[in-house]
Amino acid sequence: MRIEVMLTILVMAAATFATRFSSQALLGNTSIPPWFQRLLKHVPTAMLTALIAPAIFAPQGIVSFAIDNPYLLAGMAAAFLAYLRQSPIVTMGGGMIVMLTMRSFTI
After folding, report:
1. Is pLDDT above 90 for 31?
2. For residues 88 and 82, what is the distance between their CA atoms, to the nearest angstrom?
3. CA–CA separation, 79 vs 45, rounded Å?
4. DSSP conformation letters of the chain
5. Crossing angle between the packed helical segments 70-83 and 88-105, to the nearest 10 degrees
6. Selection from 99, 12, 86, 102 nearest residue 55 by Cα
7. What is the pTM of this model?
């Protein structure tokens, strides 16, 4: 493994630990209001959506809703499987199968 990759992983791990530890240290025994707790429950979903949506809808930097966009079709398949309450492995596997199928049949 290249040293830059290893160094990046270590720095990001330290940054993640620092942010989690600092929030524990600062908030400590204080209580969080119930409305804020409800708000915080949605942060992981919002972050994941913010990371995935550009890759699905604009894979080459241009928004594409075309039928030949394999990222869009794979995302739709994964979203449908998740809607059916399938396990994460089935959901990810279904999306990957659609992606690989689309990529293997394109010229």
Report:
1. no
2. 8
3. 13
4. --HHHHHHHHHHHHHHHHHHHHHHHHHTTPPPPHHHHHHHTTHHHHHHHHHHHHHHH-TTSS----TT-HHHHHHHHHHHHHHTT--HHHHHHHHHHHHHHHHHH--
5. 160
6. 99
7. 0.58
